[in-house]
Amino acid sequence: MSTLEIKDLRASVTTDAGAKEILRGVDLTVRAGETHAIMGPNGSGKSTLAYAIAGHPKYEITGGEVLLDGENVLEMSVDERARAGLFLAMQYPVEVPGVSMANFLRSAATAVRGEAPKLRTWVKEVKGAMDALEIDQTFAERSVNEGFSGGEKKRHEVLQLSLLKPKVAILDETDSGLDVDALRVVSEGVNRYKAAGDVGVLLITHYTRILKHITPDVVHVFAGGRIVESGGAELADELETNGYVKFTGAAAGVEVAS
Amino acid sequence: MSSPDTVAAAAEAGRYGQGGVPPAGAMERFTSYDVEAFEVPGGREENWRFTPMKRLRGLHDGTATFDGTAAVDVSAGGAGTGVTVETVGRDDARIGEGGVPADRVAAQAWSAFREATVVTLDGTPEPVTITLNGPGAGATAVAHLQVRTTPHTEATVVVEGRGSGALADNIEFVVADGSKLVVIVTEEWADDAVHVSGQHIALGRDATIVATSIAFGGDLVRVSPTVTYTAPGGSAELFGLGFADAGQHLEQRLLVDHSTPHCSSNVLYKNALQGKEGVTDAHTVWIGDVLIRAAAEQTETFEFNRNLVLTAHARADSVPNLEIETGEIAGAGHASATGRFDDEQLFYLQSRGIPEDVARRLVVRGFFGEILSRIPLAELRERLEAAVEAELAVTGA
């Protein structure tokens, strides 16, 4: 049973005009077996939350803490966080020319599992995971994300999720830029990951449509760098109908991060 | 992630129309077979401004005495079916079909050579290896090599530069109609060597060249490939990989001259640099000139130079330049980026649990792999990969 605890998390980014605070005291606890959706308007800081937890060097943590099963995540390097069981499916996965997907996946699995997977079972495992996400086998020999379409990149993020089996997965706008079929395939991949283990999911999204495929236990509204309201799945329906206007009002007086 | 090695890369990228006026027009470039037709360059000229003239051993100003010989050896395998090797005089009518010298050193080599090696490839011969031997330490030589195909030939040629001394040469690749020539040129010179090379690539109708240029060795290596299209349908894929150590000067000057319709060019050159305190900077220079003349409608071209600076005391110059005289093109673009490790790539790999040192190795190997993986000859590819590993071992990158 894993728990991700975020307590009063504050983070800023350095701009030409000096440090700019984007996260303004985020409190959130995700327990194993739970799926939390974080919804918010563009620029509310929800992607920053994802990157700050993963340890992107662009963001400076100015206060608060992040604990995974009581361990201080903020003191860990980026790779230590991943090995501790955190995973971030990125909105814009990075291209790494010259590094094959196969080499990358094996290097990642070796690191996360603490030993190199046995070649025979590994090949089978990867093939099965690719088939499940309707990814052509030829992608294994292509450079990481290079020349992939938006949908192909997202499928590969979920492929990594299914192979690395983290304790807590943060999905940052995994639904954006996907057509209906790709959304279904990707959502099914996430649901299989949820079903296979006692894991926590933090689903960051701008739209409600992915929530029709992946059912959240809790919905949070994110505005002005913090959570301004939490509720059940019905909160998403309300957002669908009324939009974010009410909540950006709740964050009034707080400058909206870009 | 905050170590000095990961400082943000300075990058620039542009497309035609955003880059402003090119610094120097390549449209009206002067060419001649006669060395005396060129003024002696002083080093400030556009096409010499990056080159350390003092290290040219007098190849540029007439003071070099050609007291050595550069043997051109064609591998035994090259004597097989479909390969003809000839030694010919200056008066052979085929000499010069590839192109005309465009700088004084190339013209010097042209004016001074007495015999040329002509390798003719016909049909689908086995891969041929041609070794270009330096004249030996302290000696200076010129050489002339022409590799040509008959129509509809498909062949692979490796040209390996080895040894010591100073060498100025011209290498012609004359690719006949419907032929595909895969060329790998390696500069594997000893530390003292100076190699100034004019490469002249002439593509016939629907002809293709896939040329990969590998520069590892030598004190000063300056290679100037020029691609011309003698008929429509030609395709040039030009790849390059350089690795400059402390004190090394590696210069690549490309000109792709689109003068006929429906031709394409794709250029990808990558350099890595690692210098050392107290030694002259490791230096790479990449010039990528692409001309699309008025007649060259439906041209498709892209060129990209990427430089990976592994240490301090290293300098990479990169000048992409696209000149277009017709609006009727299929596509044209260029980009150049120079920097240290890509922070975003490292973050991505590390976010999957891969430790930083392993992630760095992956990124650096990937940087070279993008070029080396295209080399179709396994033995050569493995040798070059091993050479990269040996270079990287110097700084532990």
From TrEMBL, chain A:
<protein>
    <submittedName>
        <fullName>FeS assembly ATPase SufC</fullName>
    </submittedName>
</protein>
<dbReference type="Pfam" id="PF00005">
    <property type="entry name" value="ABC_tran"/>
</dbReference>
<keyword id="KW-0067">ATP-binding</keyword>
<keyword id="KW-0547">Nucleotide-binding</keyword>
<feature type="domain" description="ABC transporter">
    <location>
        <begin position="4"/>
        <end position="248"/>
    </location>
</feature>
<comment type="similarity">
    <text>Belongs to the ABC transporter superfamily. Ycf16 family.</text>
</comment>
<dbReference type="GO" id="GO:0016887">
    <property type="term" value="F:ATP hydrolysis activity"/>
</dbReference>
<dbReference type="InterPro" id="IPR003593">
    <property type="entry name" value="AAA+_ATPase"/>
</dbReference>
<dbReference type="GO" id="GO:0005524">
    <property type="term" value="F:ATP binding"/>
</dbReference>
<dbReference type="InterPro" id="IPR003439">
    <property type="entry name" value="ABC_transporter-like_ATP-bd"/>
</dbReference>
<dbReference type="InterPro" id="IPR027417">
    <property type="entry name" value="P-loop_NTPase"/>
</dbReference>
<dbReference type="InterPro" id="IPR010230">
    <property type="entry name" value="FeS-cluster_ATPase_SufC"/>
</dbReference>
TrEMBL record, chain B:
<dbReference type="Pfam" id="PF01458">
    <property type="entry name" value="SUFBD_core"/>
</dbReference>
<protein>
    <submittedName>
        <fullName>SufD family Fe-S cluster assembly protein</fullName>
    </submittedName>
</protein>
<dbReference type="InterPro" id="IPR037284">
    <property type="entry name" value="SUF_FeS_clus_asmbl_SufBD_sf"/>
</dbReference>
<feature type="domain" description="SUF system FeS cluster assembly SufBD core">
    <location>
        <begin position="137"/>
        <end position="367"/>
    </location>
</feature>
<feature type="region of interest" description="Disordered">
    <location>
        <begin position="1"/>
        <end position="23"/>
    </location>
</feature>
<dbReference type="InterPro" id="IPR055346">
    <property type="entry name" value="Fe-S_cluster_assembly_SufBD"/>
</dbReference>
<dbReference type="InterPro" id="IPR000825">
    <property type="entry name" value="SUF_FeS_clus_asmbl_SufBD_core"/>
</dbReference>
